[in-house]
């Protein structure tokens, strides 16, 4: 796949999950996906990653990603941006604040459809 195709795959995954369209988002994941959420817990496989995403829908029902930069090289895609949403559910012991939250985020994607997320 070309660098532009790899970039497009990562952006399509963000867009699907921002719409809370789990089935569409899964199309852009490899079976060996590895992700680390805001809680620092590493999740392996599509099922664990999707369970985490669904739990975040409850916490930030209007959550969305604003990708500010996408860099591709070889089989890697790096995205940098902001996740924004209204905090409506408990998150890591913090009760719902019902206020807008903005979180800086960075993710590294390896190979087309194979994802490793590193929160920085």
From TrEMBL:
InterPro entries: Cyclase_SnoaL-like, NTF2-like_dom_sf. It comes from the Bacteria. One of its GO terms (biological process) is polyketide metabolic process. Pfam families: SnoaL (PF07366). This is Ester cyclase. It comes from Hyella patelloides LEGE 07179.
